[in-house]
Amino acid sequence: MTLARARSVxxxxxxxxxxxxxxxxxxGLPGFSLVGLPDAALAExxxxxxxxxxxxxxxxxxxxxxxxxxxxxLPKAGAHFDLAIAMAVLGAAxxxxxxxxxxxxxxxxxxLDGRLKPIRGxxxxxxxxxxxxxxxxxxxxPNVDEARLVAEVEVFGVRSLRQTLALLCxxxxxDEPPYPAEDDPAAAEHSVLPRSDRLAGLDLxxxxxxxxxxxxxxxxxxxxxxxxxxxxxxxxxTMLAERMPALLPDLDQREAxxxxxxxxxxxxxxxxxxxxxxxxxxxxxxxxxxPAIVGGGARMARPGAVSLAHRGVLFLDEAPEFRPTVLDAxxxxxxxxxxxxxxxAGTARFPARxxxxxxxxxxxxxxxxxxxxYCTCTPQARSRYQHRLSGPIKDRIDIMQLVEPVxxxxxxxxxxxxxxxxxxxxxxxxxRQRQTQRFADAPWTLNAHVPGYELRRRWPPEPDALxxxxxxxxxxxxxxxxxxxxxxxxxxxxxxxxxxxxxxxxVFAALTLxxxxxxxRRDTGRxxxxxRTNLIRGGGETQPESTEPVT
Length: 551
Prior knowledge:
Blueprint: E1 3-12, E2 15-26, E3 31-35, H1 40-43, H2 45-55, E4 64-70, H3 82-92, H4 98-102, E5 105-106, E6 109-110, E7 116-117, H5 122-131, E8 136-140, H6 144-147, E9 154-158, H7 161-169, H8 185-188, H9 195-198, H10 211-223, E10 227-230, H11 237-242, H12 253-265, E11 281-282, H13 290-294, E12 295-296, E13 302-303, H14 305-308, E14 313-316, H15 324-328, H16 331-336, E15 338-343, E16 346-351, E17 355-360, H17 379-386, H18 391-395, E18 399-402, H19 408-414, H20 421-438, H21 452-458, H22 466-475, H23 480-497, H24 504-515, H25 529-537
Parallel strand pairs: 3-4, 5-8, 8-9, 10-17, 10-18, 11-14, 14-17
Antiparallel strand pairs: 1-2, 2-4, 6-7, 12-13, 15-16
Helix pairs in contact: 2-3, 10-20, 20-23, 21-23, 22-23, 22-25, 23-24
């Protein structure tokens, strides 16, 4: 036989496609042609595969060799095609029968000595092939645990091309030395995955004072809400953000597979930790570029920080110091829960359903709090600094929390009253359980993910709670999007309190969290009051405005 076919998987984002690797040995001058839109790393497989086959004790065909990757119109990237290419060539050279290659998917990068090296994206590759009906896989030994996370598939871990050939031929596997752990690029980067593991020892009880800020963090964790904290340096903003992962429950099986697949594609999944079970915590530096935050790449798109924080927390410390283009690029993932990266070679989609937590100072010097007596910034500098966060980004944040300096008396008095993370996490777990039961027949799991129209139609609050939101909407203090977020916050507050439905006090507390201050009704005389109040009530008559405080 001069023609053989093996199978591998091509990844686009976290989505995979089964690829047929066909090898043909024909007449002509000796040569190796690789076709099918390979990238630079894949095009170099010609040299790697030839050396690996020769160093594994197999003869290389001294004839014209053509290897085609099908479908030909699908761009293909990565060195994980090496093993499939090598086995297709050996199949064409009759070193292994075609029926042995038909029912197996081959993944692995070859070294020049024939050893198999760990690869990125094993989990999403196996998931995609399993969805397409493939059940047998051969992967490098360090990736076996990751591949076996997929149910009802048979995974074989091999160390070299020689072992792969023996496995497919039914022979005894030759003894090969294990792949050195220090050569695993993922193992060298395990310290960044996930960051929540390194924050596991931090406790919310270590934050003295800041009772309002601690409550805001609890509400954000319970409902999956976005949180913005503003205050002077040293007030505790970073401490509060770093302790949020301790309040979040473990990921369920479906969420864990989603997060693990993203980290696998990014090459941040160490072989000794094949499954991410804790919500990740990602805190990029403010000098990070747009591709580092959102994702991208020259040819093959890689996930950015927003995707690495999927099902977890993305913390932007000193948020105004980030580039405006980087901050504005967060609009799509905040609304849709995914990032779509378009390139000339194709489009990649990455999940990005994260909780955004940002911390900022009130001004460049950080002292513009209270009466601002110690602030050295000009009004123009202060205004420019505060406007680095655009209005559309602020409107997508649920909770605005002011974090003021803590007095010594508050710290002393709060030492015996502050609750540890375990106590708060139990309330968060109970609140999330109530949400899971409420949304059992819906595609959402958290209050923050429910669309506004569904929230108003299927889960409205008590009728006497709506006028407070209508007043703020008609006065222009909140937008229609902000009104929806107030209702979501009200549901989270009710879940934390164990109530079946949010009432007037829940809505008032939600407005306070949304505005960063206690709300007041104000009749501004603006037109369109009836239209705005109908957005909350879903139609019907409007209520008269008053200038009394909401109580």
